[in-house]
Amino acid sequence: MNTFFCSDYAREVGEDLIGSATNYETYILVECPPPWTTDAFNSRWVPKNLHLLVEEIHNAKLPIRFLLIANDVSHKTDQTTLLIYQKKPGLNNGYQKYEFQLPNIENVAGVVKKWLYNQTSDYQVYTDATRDILVCTHGSHDKCCARYGNPFYFHATNTISNLNLDNVRLWKSSHFGGHRFAPTAIDLPEARYYGALDQDSLTSILTRTGDIKCLAKVYRGWGILPSQLQVLEREIMLYHGWDWFNYKVSAKILEQSLDNNTFLAELSCKNADGSLYTYQATLVKDHTKSLKLKSTCNATKESLLVKYAVVNLGLISTKVLSLSKY
Question: Can you list the domains of the chain with their CATH numbers?
């Protein structure tokens, strides 16, 4: 009997979580009661038209991530929540939410198609600010997400309720990668990814209080950035503290070596008063943290997981907002 749990092993060897957030232009989240099959969109409650649309978009290699979501009342509700999160352009701090309450899941494919073609929907769209926390509980995809995701989700419902936070919604979600870090979560609309969570770290993330250094162990990266640049953003975040969560950013790779072992990266950020800062750093393959391991419970062989270290981080330009005109 196979008793290997990828999440236990990743913790045992001390794998650094950073750089494991995935980077998409759009998230499309469809409320659908579990159980979900290994390939979530093959599940019994997913209609054929939606399954075909997901396949079509996947085959076209568009930067769109479809996920199934559910909460404790999803199987009792007489409507289906559809959430579309679209990445904001330029310097930004995440995604814009478009929410639809549809009569049933059969309506989802038509609404998504219209949305993708910039056509007006027949249904009202809500853009009010909500914070949607997705916890992967997709045990049929990887058993660690059942073993660690389900109990974490259960306790997180109490944590959120006890904190009396407005507009925070907790969802079970189908697989979004990184199950070896279970319990793993995405915090939308920012699309910051977390793993190896417990209720204390969740409380800090939700309230943005406590020692920011606790994030060093649970932060997988910011999904608006390519994976190599996520380690740089973490470094700057730990320096700035919780205030960093009010900044808008953009980042790019300026140069990279042929073997992908070295990158010259630049990250620009704008704070709440409009001041603009630009950092540059070299990202170098970290031989001490790069590991070969089985990245899923069902893996038959080990994968090399490359990690990067930040060197020569420097602030190269500052443009402070002039207050003289006020």
Answer: 6-217 (3.40.30.10), 227-319 (3.10.450)
